[in-house]
Design brief:
One of its GO terms (biological process) is methylation. It is a single chain. By secondary structure, the protein is of the alpha/beta class. It is 35% helix and 18% strand. The strands form three sheets. The protein has a ten-stranded mixed β-sheet with strand order 3-4-5-6-9-10-11-12-13-14. Strands 1-2 form a two-stranded parallel ribbon. It binds iron/sulfur cluster. The site of iron/sulfur cluster has 12 residues, from loops.
Length: 370
């Protein structure tokens, strides 16, 4: 009987040291191998020249290093880069790298599809298949880092990671926490805590759990300033309404001096972009140390929403700024390759029948309009 090999990308430093201990090896050997994987992008044990031949053979017999397979890659006119990464025979996810003058940000996915059904989100129309493994999450960073020629601590081209791609990261807690640990480990990608951001739709108990186990930056997909509207846009709000969510954010911030929570707010024309919405948002933002990211909606095929006018977004921002709420408008990047915020799709074998329902509604809308 043959035993399946373990993928070393599935382990953070502690996990890898434990694995090496089981093989009768010292912890520093695990550290050496981590450096080969994440600093030099080596996946072949034979190339790990400072690791003894006997250990290399032992590792090759019991383990492998398998990043996700690049099925397709494309660069936008503004330099944004998108990968379609195959996760198994029938599912693929997208990750996006956004280069800016002083930093390079990779947007990483945590699930194949998403089950939370936010109404303005392209991923949501595809349904949900499964959680990604830790290897599949950190593998997205590995693929981008290799492509960019990133060398932690020296040639740092990848400076920030945001868990804002497909999926709700807090519903895949253990794998996401393990992958974020490698992102911040000096033997991994060596990013500072504040440069790794987890974005959640608002799973209150899991925000508290994250608070106990990780020091990453927290972002919350808010998108509406009152419960009635938010429940319509982000159905999870029915379970965890805004007050409970803000209380959890307050607890998260209280454990980390000088931390601010980022609140993402997608600007939907005539839906959540009116001055009274901005004034309601100001009141909410007084409850926690916060900043607001206004995201011009990026339309996708079949959506009923439209992007707010630029002048409306600026007027909304001014109300917040005048009330001393730090507020940025996110520049749309990579929309010519469908890599902009909320546009990631991948290939999802839907297990929720949501794709069929979305198609039915779409066809019905077309028939009604005919
Ligand atoms: S916005 Fe995020 S949590 Fe909501 S459906 Fe899309 S991927 Fe899921």
């Amino acid at each position: 009987m043959t035993t399946a090999k373990v993928n070393l990308l599935d382990y953070d430093r502690k996990g890898l040291r434990d694995l090496f201990a089981q093989l009768g090896e010292k912890p520093y050997r695990a550290d050496q191998v981590m450096k080969w994987i994440y600093h030099r992008h080596v996946t072949d044990f034979a190339q790990m020249t400072d690791v003894g031949k006997a250990l290399r053979e032992k590792l090759a017999a019991a383990s492998e290093i398998v990043p996700p397979k690049t099925l397709f890659e494309k660069q936008a006119a503004d330099g944004t880069y998108k990968w379609l990464l195959g996760m198994d025979g029938s599912n693929a996810i997208e990750s996006v790298f956004i280069p800016e003058t002083s930093r390079g940000t990779l947007c990483v996915s945590s699930q194949v599809g998403c089950g939370l059904n936010c109404q303005f989100c392209s991923t949501a129309t595809q349904g949900f298949n499964r959680n990604l493994s830790a290897a599949e999450i950190i593998g997205q960073v590995w693929v981008a880092a290799k492509h960019l020629g990133n060398v932690p601590h020296h040639q740092r081209k990848l400076t920030n990671v945001v868990m804002m791609g497909m999926g709700e990261p807090l519903l895949n807690f253990d794998n996401v926490v393990a992958a974020m640990s490698v992102m911040r480990d000096d033997l991994g990608f060596g990013l500072a805590n504040k440069r790794v951001t987890l974005s959640t739709a608002g799973l209150v108990p899991m925000i508290d759990k994250l608070s106990e186990s990780s020091d990453v930056s927290l972002a919350v997909s808010l998108h509406a300033p009152n419960d009635e509207l938010r429940t319509e846009l982000v159905p999870l709000n029915k379970k965890y309404p805004i007050k409970e969510l803000l209380d959890a954010c307050g607890r998260y911030a209280a454990r980390r001096p000088r931390t601010t929570i980022t609140f993402e707010y997608t600007m939907l024309k005539g839906v959540n972009d009116q001055p009274e919405h901005a004034r309601q948002l100001v009141k909410l933002m007084r409850k926690v140390p916060s900043k607001v990211n206004l995201i011009p909606f990026n339309p996708f095929h079949g959506t009923r929403f439209e992007r707010s006018e630029e002048s409306v977004i600026r007027a909304f921002q001014k109300i917040l700024l005048d009330a001393n709420v730090l507020t940025m408008v996110r520049r749309t990047r990579g929309d010519d390759i469908d890599a902009a915020c909320g546009q990631l799709k991948g290939q999802v074998t839907d297990r929720t029948r949501r794709q069929a329902e979305f198609r039915r509604k779409l066809e019905q809308g077309v028939a009604d309009a005919a």
